[in-house]
Amino acid sequence: KNEVEQSPQNLTAQEGEFITINCSYSVGISALHWLQQHPGGGIVSLFMLSSGKKKHGRLIATINIQEKHSSLHITASHPRDSAVYICAVPGETGNQFYFGTGTSLTVIP
Amino acid sequence: NAGVTQTPKFQVLKTGQSMTLQCAQDMNHEYMSWYRQDPGMGLRLIHYSVGAGITDQGEVPNGYNVSRSTTEDFPLRLLSAAPSQTSVYFCASSLDSRIYGYTFGSGTRLTVV
Q1: What's A24-66 look like in SS3?
Q2: Can you give the pLDDT of all 109 residues of chain A as single tens digits?
Q3: Is B13 helix (H, G, I), strand (E, B) or coil?
Q4: Do A101 and B41 touch (CB under 8 A)?
Q5: C-beta atoms of B101 and A43 within 8 A
Q6: Which of A29, A97, A101, A104 has the highest number of chain B CBs within 10 A, making it the mutation to test binding with B?
Q7: B75–chain A Cβ distance below 8 A for any pair
């Protein structure tokens, strides 16, 4: 049983394309997190959101609490956006985090 | 720089050897956790701690020990390394992950041969 499901698993895009990564979860949450992991690199937090929409530069994250679904959008994608994007939700106690398996994005020049 | 420091970055072990992965944070975070990351699987919780002197098991604790003698440090010990423990290990810390999420270390890539 996977508490967090991401799609697609792999995504290849041409530079400039609009990209959408989806995340569905089954647990009740206080906030959902989007993380980014560059090849061979560490994991950094992009967004934490509990409702509506957040925007940082070309990245936009949305969440629908009723439908238990979140999306991460990248506008005007660039090769430096190539990374693994991970959706994560905290468990009830805050000690456990449930992670999606990640979406591997490759942006081709 | 403030953050989570993991050492070493890379390690190769022979089956049966033991070693300790170090993790230190200077943000006075109470929550610290160890995760392993394997291809095709999400990050999986090995052990976690909610404060000095308090640790508990996560999803995949077998073969690993932890201790938390100070707020800053949370080492992960592999007792007798096995090839199944070949993975990338991440340490993470948080004030409260439900509110703030986690700050991750840069990871340790471990290969057991």
Answers
A1: EECCCCCCEEEEEECCCCCEEEEEEECCEEEEECCEEEEEECC
A2: 568 999 999 999 999 999 999 999 987 777 899 999 988 778 998 989 989 999 999 999 999 988 999 999 999 999 999 999 999 988 776 567 889 999 999 999 9
A3: strand
A4: yes
A5: no
A6: A97
A7: no
